[in-house]
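Appendix B. One record, verbatim.
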Amino acid sequence: MRYLLIMVFFFVSTLSMAGVDNFAIGARSAAMANSTVMLADIWSGHHNQAGLASVEHISGGIYYENRFAVKELGLNAGVVVLPVNLWGSSVFGLSFSYFGYSMYNDMKIGLAYAKKLGERYSVGIQFDYLRTSIGEDYGNKGTVAVEVGLQAELIDDLYIGVHIFNPTRSKAVEYEVQDVVTTERIPTILRFGLSYTFSEKVILTAEVEKDVYAKPAFKAGVEYRAIKQLYLRGGVSSYPVSSSFGFGLYLGTFTLDFAATKHQILGYTPQISLSYAINTKSKEQPTEVVE
């Protein structure tokens, strides 16, 4: 029964070429129920490009997710971040994700630019190429979209994050049935969140995410630094109802994150990510979300 529900869920999402979504990427984020629009690390290239402005070193990361432990629902992703001294403190990012298998898959490639505006504000923008492929008969369809984001420290230790995916409502496909023209568009997704850094050990986050085609999702997460190299994380989400947990190991230039998300009906989804920073001077992973 579980696998029947999974396949129904999957194939319903393939009924139109507008299936491209803004997938959540990164095991740190997954462990906190993806309540991370206000956090800053290299995975901000997939969540909120404004967070890339806090990355100080050339970095890269890879990610894998096996949704509900079904191989056809695998999600592969990566990101490369390049800080440069251009127009002040600027950061460029290149991200990639691939979801699905040979008969159905979504691909996204994004080029981002982020910049700090003073000590408390960061902004980011990303241009995406999105492509959906369905079987041999339907072929594939590509389109472009834009993402914009903002992060700010409102007061000491209280941070805000805002991100909009596809504010221009890019068209996915247009078709005609019985002289009626129908246009399907890539979803527009708005995320707004707050976090509070209680100490070097604890961060609490809360976020609301609204897809124009779906109910709003309310999410909350926590990150606890147990020891210098070990982070413990957890989170809950309202839509779909799910819980998550995970840990992170900070090993100097390498960071390994693991997470698992439990859907109330469909079961567990494991996630893992590995990142590497070149010439990292700091021996500790920063807990601040925006410098």
